[in-house]
Structure formats: C-alpha cells, structure tokens
Amino acid sequence: MALRARALYDFRSENPGEISLREHEMLSLCSEQDIEGWLEGVNSRGDRGLFPASYVQVIRAPAAEPPPPARYANVPVGGFEPLPPPASFKPAAQQPPAEPFPPPPAGYPFPPYGGSYQPSQGSDDDWDDDWDDSSTVADEPGALGSSYPDYEAASGGASGRYRLCTRSEPSLGPRGAGHPPGHPHPPGGGGAAKSSATVSRNLNRFSTFVKSGGEAFVLGEASGFVKDGDKLCVVLGPRGPEWQENPYPFQCSIEDPTKQTKFKGMKSYIAYKLVPSHTGQQVHRRYKHFDWLYGRLAEKFPVISVPHLPEKQATGRFEEDFISKRRKGLAWWMDHMCSHPVLAQCDAFQHFLTCPSTDEKAWKQGKRKAEKDEMVGANFFLTISVPTGPGASLDLQEVESQVDGFKAFTKKMDESALQLNHTANEFARKQVTGFKKEYQKVGHSFKCLSQAFELDQQAFSAGLNQAIAFTAEAYDAIGDLFADQPRQDLDPVMDLLALYQGHLANFPDIIHVQKG
C-alpha cells in the first residue's frame, strides 16, 4: 500500500526540487524516511519533489489482524507431526553474522537537484586577443569563492557532508533550516522538528544561496580579514536601511565610438571614450572591458543588482546604427553605476575608469588584483556593517512581509515590462514596414492619377496636375516619417526598459539569498 501524508500547513516552494503544499492536501510519499528534515513525495497536482517533514502528518494504515488458520477436510484434527529439522539447520544463536550491506551511494536516495551545470558559452568582441596573456584567478577551479571544505559524517564515514553544530536546535534540513527558507516555523509545530547536532548543506549545489557564499557564511566558514576600506556601511534612512551614500559623487560620459585596428589591420574593434568627472582624464575602453567589469561586480556583490550590459552581437558590430545604439545603452549603464553608493566606489570600477589606456602593465596589474580579491563569496558578507543602537533592530516579520511584497511587485513589473516590450516592438515594426508601405501605396496612386491628367494638354489642367503630384509626394513623406518615428520615441524607451529588465532579472536571485 502506498504511503500517504496530509499537509498540516501551506508551503510555497522557492528552490529547484521542492514542491508546494496546501493545507489538508493529500500526498503520496516516495519513502517514509525523511532526509534531514525533508520528505520526497507527489502532491495532488502530480508534482514530485521535496517538502518539510514537519509540515505534513504521515498516515499509517492500522495493522491488519492475521487471518484464521485454514481447515481442510483431509487433515486430521490433531494435525501432522512436525518433521525433524534438516541436518544443515542451525539455531539463530549459532548462525554466523550476516554480511553488512554496502554503504549507499552519495546522495541516496535522492540525487542532487539541478542536473549538470553548463557554463555559458558567450563569445563576443574579440576575446581571443592578447589583452591579458596569462591565466587569471577567475579561470582557475574554486576561484569564485564557492568551494567549501567537506566534513565527513560521524557514522562510519558515510558519503554525506556535514558540519558539526554545538547548539541544541531543531534539525536543519537541506535548505539550512528546519523549515523552508523565508517561511516561519509551522504554527504550534516548532517542537515537532527533531533535535539534531548536525547542519547539512544544501542538496542543490548550484543554488544561488550556495554559489553566493551565503550558505558558507551562515555555517560560519567565512574567515577573511576586513580592512576599513572594504567595509560597506548600512545606515538607517527615512525609509529604512539603505547603503551609505558616496561622499564623493561623480559622473562619467561615454562619447566618440571609433573603429581601431591592431596587428597591422588584421583585427578591428570599437573603442569608446570615457571621461569621469572626478578625474577629468579621458580613457578608451572596448566592450570586452565593460564585460570583464560586469563579471567582477556580479561575482563580488551577490546582494546588489548590477545592471546588465547591452546585448552582445556577433555580426554587424561595425554598422553605424548598432554602434550608436550600443553607445546609448552603455551610457544608461554608466549612469546607473555612477549613481550607486556601493558599486561606484568599488576598486575594480575605479580601476576601469582611471587606468590610462596606454599603460598595459598597470591595467593588467589592477585586473589581476581585482580577480584575486579575497572579499568575495562568504567573506563578502563580513564586509557589511549594519547599524547598532536604539531603533536599529528590525521586526523580522515586517522584514519578511516587505520582502514578499517586493517580490510580488518585481514579478508583476517583469511581466508588464515583457508585455510592453513585445507590444512596442510589434508597433515599431508596423511603423517601419507596414505603415510606410501603405502610405507609399496611396502616394503612388495619386502619382498615377497625376500622370493621367498630364495627357490632357488643356492649359487649365496644369495647376490640377501639380496639386495631385504634390499630394503624392506628401503621402510618400508621411510614410518616411512613420518609418523614422520609432527612432525618436520608442527606441529610447525600449533601451531604458531593457536596463530595468536586467534589474528585474537579478532580483529573484537576490531575494533567494536574502531568504536563505
């Protein structure tokens, strides 16, 4: 008989491999044995995955009474005499000890969720040149601050990995807590969770909470030394906690994209002129430099939304329209970067803005220094300095409510932005092609009518012919205006919307780290 369970509380899945539950919902269990506070089963909607064991009640069928002994007509009333045991029979006390079962494979009975990880294979803007001819920390295994030491379980060297905990607390399941991340303990069920002396790691090693270093920080594995210059201060603003403002704000313009060559003209690229207001010294950067900077910042700041760069393009990179569009996108990106109180003061960003374009040695030194930054991963969370004193403590339930509200807002805004992007692109396509073509058809018809009147050699027809020809030209001009209109209004709006869509794409991972 299949094992069944009834959901005691609502549960909303937030990680790959989890399923949502509704109160009083019936579930089918794959196994009655929980894995460090989590069970696997199938809900009423057919979804299979993990859910907290403390959120459900396992339903066990009552033991059935043994059936009465069967009676046969040809069996004597007293039954048969028992046969003597075989010669090879031995009592249980004399039986040799059974061979122990081999230890289960790693991850039994559930494999780690997430599947095989495939890094992105993006290639753009001449990454095969000699801008840095030696390997960097970012290219080495474990350099991204996401590799953690393994702890062998105490029971006979099992394959699970654990970290000892000396506190007496509810058992912490694969998500690092006895209840799902971001969810309160079940009502009245805080004592239902089993006490445990181990804290296990997340089963999904590719989750954002693990890759960001948040899990290692919570487990106490951060060990970096925080210098005064590395501290990121959080202050109480009029609307709550916020990053401390940059005491020296600045701006940076991006102008004059020019095509340059190297290797005696064998290789071409576009360079952009950057002029930061706090130095006044112009530097030239290629798109690959922007791409490198974005990668460094996204790795270092897992709880800050780093704006996405304009999309890469493999062909047509030297077309005038594409170069102009990319420059505008980079200018929007730079404005957001300079206005952020933390990103604007980052050493990697300042190196990007101030290192002379002609000093290749200084650029490589600063680049390697940024890639060897120790304050990444779990150590990054050590750099955050929170306010103390009266009024600095926060109500956890209020924080949870605000995070959930922001999550709902960003989800709705993301859906609306996608809809607006689709509608605007479709409308722009119609203006450039459909509307222009239709007005040109009307203009062509008036032109044909004018040509017909030209066959009439009457003197009074000359003025009418000119008016009809002028009407034809006017419709042609209106078609051209329709084709050019998206460049004047929709394109700038879509460029700015694309930047915000990048932020909206970042927020789910940031919220996941916060809730973890």
TrEMBL record:
Start and end residues of each stretch annotated as Disordered: 85-197
All copies of domain PX, residue ranges: 250-360
GO aspect biological process, one term: endocytosis
Binding residues annotated for a 1,2-diacyl-sn-glycero-3-phospho-(1D-myo-inositol-4,5-bisphosphate), in chain numbering: 286, 288, 326
Domain of life: Eukaryota
Predominant location: membrane
UniProt-listed Pfam families: BAR_3_WASP_bdg, PX, SH3_9
InterPro entries: AH/BAR_dom_sf, PX_dom, PX_dom_sf, SH3-like_dom_sf, SH3_domain, SNX18_PX, SNX18_SH3, Snx9_fam
Family matches, as SMART domains: PX, SH3
UniProt xrefs under SUPFAM superfamilies: PX domain, SH3-domain
Domain SH3 span(s) in chain numbering: 1-61
Positions with biased composition (Pro residues): 97-112
Membrane topology: Peripheral membrane protein
Name of the molecule in the record: SNX18 protein
Keywords (A to Z) from UniProt: Cell cycle, Cell division, Cytoplasmic vesicle, Endocytosis, Membrane, Mitosis, Protein transport, SH3 domain, Transport
Residue ranges that the Swiss-Prot or TrEMBL entry lists as coiled coil: none
GO-annotated molecular function: phosphatidylinositol binding
Subcellular compartments: Cytoplasmic vesicle membrane
Biased composition (Acidic residues): 123-133
Similarity-based family: Belongs to the sorting nexin family.
Entry GO CC: cytoplasmic vesicle membrane; plasma membrane
